[in-house]
Amino acid sequence: MQHYFAKIDDGYVHLSENDAHHLLHVMRNKVGDSLIAIDNGKEYLADIKNLSPLTIEVIEELDNNNELESDITLLYCLAKGDKIEFVIQKATELGAKKIALISSKYCVSKIDNEAFKKKYPRYHLIAKEASEQCHRQIIPEIVGVYDINKLPPELLSDVNLVAYEKCEDSPLLEIKGKSISILIGSEGGFDKKEIENLKKAGFKSVSLGKRILRTETAAVYALSVLGYYLEK
Questions:
Q1: Which DSSP string corresponds to the chain?
Q2: Which residue in 126, 138, 146, 232 has the fewest CB atoms around it within 10 Å?
């Protein structure tokens, strides 16, 4: 059954123009078909009552919650090509609540906040469609671009981690019931001074194993491991 983020008003579902087009002309839904509408973190079962004008009536509120029990913020250092879009999609599927783009010394890609603003609609659309596909109740917040040495308090959590290939001993941490921020480096890795500054800010270094992972693989791996521990 299709899931759509929508506005619920007086018992009726109001889709965006693009989603209405998708429903009518891509999915070719008919009168009597059902869908799931998501508004303000809640899911509603709704039926299509009319196609022109499109009329969708709420049948009942559903008691579904597919979100992780802890809020996860992915701090992802700028990467080249379409890696950022890939990571936004996968981080959404894996339950991240916030995704922040970070600028560090060895980032190959250079995106400033003006460039981010232009790219944001595309990033948001990717997160929205991924949230609908994996039946989440929220769309992750996407923010950026932040200097790795000047991370604001709103990007920090109860537990702050940085995936570092030179970490010799990953700490055992209790993460259930706590918010978590995980920082993933770019293709060029981290500068030693950046790691020192992160430690002063309360970050703990963690290892992602003996192998050196691509930046996009590291993000997916780290979120997968966190999700496993939170949901087991």
A1: --EEE-EEETTEEE--HHHHHIIIIIS---TT-EEEEEETTEEEEEEEEEETTEEEEEEEEE----S-SS-EEEEEE--STTHHHHHHHHHHHTT-SEEEEEE-TT-SS---HHHHHHHHHHHHHHHHHHHHHTT-SS--EEEEEEETTS--GGG--SEEEEE-TT-SSPPP---TTS-EEEEE--TT---HHHHHHHHHTT-EEE---SSPPPHHHHHHHHHHHHHHHHH-
A2: 232
